[in-house]
Design goal:
4 helices, 5 strands
């Protein structure tokens, strides 16, 4: 584990930006607090790796199984017109995938989404975040059990 890695430490750097949802077989899932894209999730590989090429072919398939489960669940709960997937890593030393619901008719449609658009949108309370994360968690775990 890297001492500076926010995803390994699961410290305030992560919790300030995201709400923990659950662990899947190979990843941890977080709900992004910035709510311009309701249902936006970050799927984080459990072990510390920096890039996709550090995963074995089987681990890549495992990763995509988890990302696919999150995508299916976000689609069922939030009904986006399209999901965008983003893998960057310039500023994060830990491999993760953003799953971003997009909707026709919104200012962000047809463009690459902004990490923290201006003006940013947030839920009104921690209770709302907790309820949204629980709804997502329950749906993911139910879907995983099928």
């Amino acid at each position: 584990m890297s001492e500076t890695c926010q995803y390994c430490a699961i410290d305030e750097r992560v919790l300030r930006l995201m709400v923990p949802v659950c662990e899947l077989p190979h990843t941890r899932v977080y709900l992004y607090r910035e709510n311009t894209f309701p249902g936006r999730c970050v799927v984080v590989w459990k072990e510390h790796v920096r890039k996709l090429t550090e995963l074995t072919p089987q681990q890549r398939r495992d990763l995509m199984d988890d990302v696919g489960l999150v995508a299916d669940t976000v689609t069922e709960l939030y009904h986006p017109d399209k999901l965008n997937y983003l893998i960057l890593g310039d500023e994060s030393p830990h491999f993760h995938v953003h799953v971003v619901p997009k909707y026709k008719g919104t200012p962000q449609w047809g463009k690459m989404f902004e990490m923290m658009p201006e003006p940013s949108q947030f839920m009104a309370s921690e209770e709302e975040y907790a309820a949204a994360a629980e709804r997502l968690r329950a749906a993911l775990l139910q879907k995983q059990g099928n």
